[in-house]
Amino acid sequence: RDAGAEGPAPPASRPAARRAPTTRPRGSGLTGEQEQELLAFLKDKRPHLYSRLVKLRNTAARSYRYNLHRAWRWFRQWQLMPPDVQEAALAEEQNRLRVRQIVQSLRETDDPRERKKLRSQLWTAVAEHFHAEQKMREYWIRQLEERIRRLREEHKQRAGDGKRIISERYEAHLKASTQPAPKPRAPDGPRRRRRADKPPEAPATQPAK
């Protein structure tokens, strides 16, 4: 809606304090500062993804925001990794892209010497991708094991505190039974009628001849 279509609101109707303009890219969930931080990182560490995002920013804003948000989540996870796992995460992607490039080159050449060289490069890239992938898997397995350990400790503690937990819940429910029942939620208001649902207007009265 055009805010200036009806003129400015009278001073009495304006809020006491106006919200500062946001620097968040619309729909991405990131502030402008976070977007710049992410793009600078990607330009240095993941140039392939950086180039794709820049292209999307200029041609498909909605897709850009979606992929920017996904890249930000990956970046936040990457920041929490130990340095050796960070290197493995970058190496995994680099070698995955390298494998794709070598396979494409093999499709495009029939020269025996070139194909022999490319096959050697492909083996190296596949092996390096595998080792980086294994490093990442070991990291995530350790994360899962730590989470399971914490859950088991919490479960054991709850088992020891079972009597107290039951007593507290019982008292809470007993207290609730002495209070008036909460009012049911009001149903949503009637939806706006579609044009097809609009009742027909009465026909105009014809003037008597």
Can you describe what's shown?
The chain has 209 residues and is mainly α. 65% of the residues lie in helices and 0% in strands. It contains 6 helices and no strands. Helix 1 packs across helix 2 (47-59), helix 2 packs antiparallel against helix 3 (61-79) and helix 4 runs antiparallel to helix 5 (112-160). The longest helix has 49 residues, at 112-160. The two termini are 47 Å apart. Residues 1-25 have low confidence and may be disordered.
What are the defining features of this structure?
single chain, elongated, 209 residues, disordered N terminus, 65% helix, mainly alpha
Task: Summarize, please.
Helix content is 65%, strand content 0%. The chain is mainly α. Helix 1 (32-45) crosses helix 2 (47-59), helix 2 (47-59) packs antiparallel against helix 3 (61-79) and helix 4 packs antiparallel against helix 5 (112-160).
Secondary-structure blueprint:
Layout (H helix, E strand, L loop, with lengths): L31 H14 L1 H13 L1 H19 L3 H26 L3 H49 L1 H15 L33
Helix pairs in contact: 1-2, 2-3, 4-5
**Order of secondary-structure elements:** HHHHHH
**SS class:** mainly alpha
Backbone shape: elongated
Give the C-alpha Rg.
Answer: 31 Å
- Main beta sheet: strand number and arrangement? none
- Number of DSSP-assigned strands: 0
| Amino-to-carboxy terminus distance | 47 Å
Helical residues, percent: 55-70%
Mean pLDDT level: 83
Strand content: under 5%
Task: Give unreliable regions as ranges.
Answer: 1-25
Number of helices: 6
